[in-house]
Amino acid sequence: MGIIRARKLGYDYFQYEEEGKEPDITHAIEDVDLDIQAGQFIAVLGHNGSGKSTLAKHMNALLVPTEGTMWVDQMDTGNSDDIWKIRQEAGMVFQNPDNQIVASVVEEDVGFGPENLGVPTDEIWRRVDKSLAATGMVAYRKHSPNKLSGGQKQRVAIAGVMAMKPKCIILDEPTAMLDPNGRKEVLKAVRELNQAEGVTVILITHYMEEVIYADKVFVMDEGRIVMRGTPREVFSQVDKLKELRLDVPQVTLLAYELRKAGVPVPEGILTTEELVDVLCR
């Protein structure tokens, strides 16, 4: 059984322009089927307005479906009795780390979640130590979060979610406000959590370079999943991605152009090392 499953998932936004008139309805998500297995690293891609953030909010019951069903660890998100448990199983990291940081010292911020869950003090500090180590932030534990860079703040936010011991972490465009170095830092921390801790990771993004290490990629457009597969399968379809107004990793694009020019390069090259290896051969 998957840790996150959706069947025929739909979600509508209703906008009331005038009293007494029919509302405008926006179909943010339509007919989405999903199966995410425990321990997977999943990437959800799409341009702005494709429905990927709305989908992310369903994964920890911030939104509940207008149609269909979403299950998290076999709990139906539409069942209000399970919402607290669902949010303990599925932690959420948002775009802006400042919205998630609540304490004036890094280690206290990381301990805030487990303290709210009523975790005993000794166990809280064990979790704080482990989460800071996992995100590479031990050296900053006594610092004020306000003095940290964007990438460091986001790693503190991830450590705070980690300390609550969720089975999966949903990251909703966690690098959108960061510079390239901050993006690299955060991605490295996320990949290590997935590989070393076995935490299921769902990364919502529109940066192509962030998804090449995913086990599976879902591409969204107009509220639907329009492509799914491994990064190599998805990035082999350069023309289709361009139609969806999405970029392709630069090295994948270079390999694609070389192949069009008659150089025998395989489809779906994902890293510079791969391309160099092929060309040297």
Shape: globular
| Order of strands in the sheet with most strands | 6-7-8-3-9-10
Work out the radius of gyration. 20 Å
Largest sheet: 6 strands, mixed
Element pattern in H and E: EEEHEEHEHHHEHEEEHHHH
Note the total helix count. 10
- Mean pLDDT metric: 91
Give the N-terminus to C-terminus distance in angstroms. 43 Å
Report on the structure:
By secondary structure, this protein is α/β, with parallel strands linked by helices. The protein has ten helices and ten strands. The chain has a six-stranded mixed β-sheet, with helices on both faces. The chain has a four-stranded antiparallel β-sheet with strand order 2-1-4-5, with helices on one face. Strand 4 and strand 5 (75-76) form a beta hairpin. Helix 3 (106-116) runs parallel beside helix 5, helix 4 (121-134) crosses helix 5 (150-162) and helix 5 runs parallel beside helix 6. The termini are far apart.
Summarize the structure.
The protein is of the alpha/beta class.
Indicate the topology.
Layout: E1 4-15, E2 24-36, E3 41-45, H1 52-58, E4 67-72, E5 75-76, H2 83-89, E6 90-93, H3 106-116, H4 121-134, H5 150-162, E7 168-172, H6 180-197, E8 200-205, E9 216-221, E10 224-229, H7 231-235, H8 238-243, H9 250-260, H10 272-280
Parallel strand pairs: 3-8, 3-9, 6-7, 7-8
Antiparallel strand pairs: 1-2, 1-4, 4-5, 9-10
Helix pairs in contact: 3-4, 3-5, 4-5, 5-6
